[in-house]
Amino acid sequence: MTDPRKPDFGILLVAAEHEFVRGLRATTAERGFADQGRSDGFVLRTLGDGPTTISAMAKRLEITKQGASQIADDMERRGYVERRPDPSDARVRLLHLTERGEAALAAARAYHRAYERRLRERFGDAVIDGVREVLTAMAGEDEVRSPHFRALLF
Questions:
Q1: Which DSSP category does 1 fall into?
Q2: How far apart are the first and last CA of the chain?
Q3: Chain centroid to CA 24: how far?
Q4: In sequence order, what DSSP letters do the residues of 46-80 get, joined into one string?
Q5: What gap in Å lies between CA 132 and CA 123, rounded to an integer?
Q6: Contact criterion met (CB below 8 Å) for 128 and 116
Q7: What predicted TM-score, i.e. pTM, was given to this entire model?
Q8: Beta strands of the chain (E only): which ranges?
Q9: Which residue of 4, 31, 50, 125 shows the fewest CB atoms closer than 10 Å?
């Protein structure tokens, strides 16, 4: 039974996510990436696997092609991605990370690692491994194993 004097579990999850993202944005801004949008991290991680088409990116991120194209246009304007012809079919355009995009992805990945390292130092491996297990169960084993989720991994 939950103690009504303690904060609601769902609210704690939302607050923790908010603080994680706030710290990520502050850290990446310090490294020169203050202009990142809400979707940029997902796109950077998707392209971190290698170049892809707008259609493939849309499918992987579970958004419309139009939405993916708008995000790519915006990120291209800000210098994170670029479109290049597919070497095997010049009619096809592939979305690539630019040097700036690769640097932004590296900065975000470094923040993720440092954040978990700080938690492990404070609470210990067993506690953080337990939190990971709970979060995995909450997200759903099938979701964590899905290609969509895998696109977000390091």
A1: -
A2: 37
A3: 11
A4: HHHT--B-HHHHHHHHT--HHHHHHHHHHHHHTTS
A5: 13
A6: yes
A7: 0.86
A8: 81-86, 89-97
A9: 4
Q: What is the DSSP letter of 31?
A: T
**Position 112: which residue type?**
H
Q: Which long-range contacts (CB under 8 A, 24 or more apart) does 102-109 make?
A: 102/48, 103/31, 103/32, 103/33, 104/28, 104/31, 104/33, 104/36, 104/40, 104/44, 104/80, 105/44, 105/45, 105/47, 105/48, 107/27, 107/28, 107/31, 107/33, 108/24, 108/28, 108/41, 108/44, 109/154
Using DSSP's 3-state secondary structure scheme, residue 30 falls into helix
Report how far residue 46's alpha carbon sits from residue 88's, in angstroms, rounded to the nearest whole number: 21
Encode pLDDT of 34-84 as tens digits. 999 888 998 999 999 899 999 999 998 889 999 999 999 999 999 999 999
